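Standup notes
- DV: blocked on the single-chain target, sequence here:
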Amino acid sequence: MVKLNKIYTKTGDGGQTGLSDGSRVSKYSLRVAAIGAVDETNSAIGVARLDTEGDHDAMLSRIQNDLFDLGADLSMPEDGKTEDRLRIAPAQVERLEREIDAMNAALAPLKSFVLPGGTALAAHLHLARAIARRAERAIVELAAQEAINEAAIRYANRLSDHLFVMARAANNDGMGDVLWVPGKNR
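- DV (later): unblocked, structure below
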């Protein structure tokens, strides 16, 4: 169980932060950037949840918890040990895939790229999707430099797809999507 008695510790005043294994890294490290982008994604999803209810809210609630798991995963450098390590599990990726497939089955076919917008919920989900894509890029960049859990990359990739499909569902199952019209304003 996590217990936080003191919010500020002053240990980061020199520009470093602690990882879960006790090591210290620069606050501008790739690992910290990836963790920060995951946190931003979670915050954007929290805003989107202001407009949700029912199944969508339950899905987003699970995703928010998963994103804390993802942050914990990224905060523990890979060292080959697996016991007592919180890592994103393949089952979490598979759950996202099942939810994407279920939501997508009810959507109108796409005829163009979708512009972020439509309902307030869809707009918030598109913003969360764009931030999730930034988190994915940061995770992939980290993975190019250091070993990380492969499921973490897959989860980040599926998450942006999930948020896209949910945004379309929030736009009257795609019927209210705002579509890109190439060259419309020439």
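- Follow-up: The first helix runs from residue 30 to 48.
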